[in-house]
From TrEMBL:
One of its GO terms (biological process) is base-excision repair, AP site formation. CDD domains: ENDO3c. One of its GO terms (molecular function) is alkylated DNA binding. The keyword DNA repair applies. This is DNA glycosylase. Residues 243-393 form the HhH-GPD domain. Residues 16-121, 157-186 are annotated as: Disordered. It comes from Lepidopterella palustris CBS 459.81. SUPFAM superfamilies: DNA-glycosylase. The lineage of its organism: Eukaryota, Fungi, Dikarya, Ascomycota, Pezizomycotina. Belongs to the alkylbase DNA glycosidase AlkA family. The keyword DNA damage applies. It holds the Pfam family HhH-GPD. Keywords: DNA damage, DNA repair. InterPro entries: Alkylbase_DNA_Glycosylase/TA (IPR051912), DNA_glycosylase (IPR011257), HhH-GPD_domain (IPR003265).
Length: 419
């Protein structure tokens, strides 16, 4: 009887074996449930026989406990890790793209930069010392031709409008400066290349005296006597502008260099007739897209056929230049405005679609630009009509007024001046 009672007590004590469970990174003891009546009798009968071998399960239990503790520690570290706010995939992509391609201050500054020659061809010494007549609505820059001559609106004295020159005379004009006359109906010039910038600044200050501080602080080299002596190749300027569309300045310069290297016999930039005769596949090897290759080839064909020429760009009015060039595939209004201002050196060009000019004019009129920055739409800084009305007071020197509107907000326009 005592033997049965001892066995019953022993089985009851073994029924509550403690195990360890991890709760919130801490170890706590929990008791397992007692076995059912069916298992009690088998445990009582075999408890004494299995007792000597009980050390093996104990070792296994200790090993399991150690593994459980390690897992609990790892889980505890995960649970108590410092939380971080995940970045949305779309936001990450936008941030990376913004860092790689910072937004330009103008619609396409790289294209405008390539419209001006970084190594302009100087005029001959015997011409450089002579001031030429200059007029705000005329092309005041000498334009080079494929034959090597340079076309200007005026010689050292005003000239009448000239007709097309014969091929024989064109050959004789190589490496010479050829005056072809200003646009028809244009009044006689009252300035020269030496005084044009001075006269323009005086007009701006007369309209608004507060601009004098800005003018004294920033010298506009583009319309200075030195700037007006720099010769410009119109085909190179326009083709380079197409190359620079929608790419960074570094990428545009690289593509332009590769494009020039396709024509090793060309002295500086290939002539329009050579480019027009080159296949699109060859042009694309410079890194041009299919569409840009087509644009440049089409532009070359217009210059080769003389539908576009240095003579036309000198003798045409502002409206005619805009009309002729916008008709060319690949050239938009902004590109033509930048070409007329920075390459042709025309003094009465004003671009209402330029974001830098909008922002500068808003600041010039006393608006809080920082508050307007968050607004949407194309005309978030100032309406187009307001820009037209305000700039009209500074005609016929709106190009210079536009240049100083970039300076109001310290917009970096060195890319458009080739500096």
């Amino acid at each position: 009887m005592s033997l049965r009672r001892s066995a019953r007590l022993l089985s009851n004590s073994m029924a509550t074996i403690s195990t360890e469970k991890v709760v919130n990174g801490a170890l706590k003891g929990t008791a397992e449930k007692k076995p059912t009546k069916a298992s009690k009798t088998s445990t009582t009968a075999s408890s004494k026989r299995k007792r000597p071998a009980s050390t093996v399960p104990n070792q296994a239990t200790n090993t399991e406990r150690e593994k459980t503790s390690e897992k609990a520690a790892e889980q505890n570290e995960l649970e108590f890790a410092v939380p971080t706010t995940p970045t949305a995939k779309r936001r990450r992509n936008q941030s990376a793209k913004a860092l790689a391609n910072p937004p330009p201050t103008t619609p396409a500054p790289s294209g405008a930069r390539l419209m001006t020659s970084e190594t302009p061809v100087p005029l001959p010494d015997n011409v450089r010392l002579k001031a030429r007549p200059a007029e705000p609505h005329a092309t005041n820059a000498p334009l080079s031709t494929p034959g090597g001559s340079r076309v200007v609106a005026y010689s050292s004295s005003p000239v009448k409008h000239s007709d097309d020159v014969s091929p024989t005379k064109k050959t004789k004009e190589a490496n010479k400066v050829v005056p072809v006359g200003p646009p028809l109906g244009m009044p006689a010039p009252t300035s020269t290349t030496e005084t044009l910038l001075k006269d323009a600044c005086a007009h701006l200050v007369k309209v608004d005296p507060k601009l004098k501080v800005l003018i004294d602080k920033h010298h506009c080299k583009m319309f200075s006597p030195e700037g007006l002596m720099e010769s410009v190749d119109p085909f190179m300027a326009l083709a380079s502008g197409i190359i620079g569309q929608q790419v960074s300045g570094a990428a545009a310069a690289s593509i332009k260099n590769k494009f020039i290297s396709l024509f090793p016999s060309a002295p500086a930039f290939p002539a329009p007739s050579i480019v027009a005769a080159t296949s699109l596949e060859t042009l694309r090897t410079a890194g041009l897209s299919q569409r840009k290759a087509e644009y440049i080839q089409g532009l070359a064909e217009k210059f080769a056929s003389e539908e576009l020429s240095a003579r036309m760009l000198v003798s045409a009015s502002d409206e005619e230049v805009m009309e002729k060039l916008i008709a060319v595939r690949g050239l938009g209004r902004w590109s033509v405005e930048m070409f007329a201002c920075f390459s042709l050196k025309r003094m009465d060009i004003f671009s209402t679609g330029d974001l830098g000019v909008q922002r500068g004019m808003a600041a010039y009129m006393g608006k809080d630009v920082s508050k307007l920055k968050g607004k949407g739409g194309k005309w978030k800084y100032m309406s187009e009509q307001d820009m037209v009305d305000i700039s009209a007071r500074f005609s016929p020197y709106r190009s210079l007024f536009m240049w100083y509107m970039w300076r109001v907000e310290d917009v970096d326009i060195s890319v458009m001046q080739g500096n």
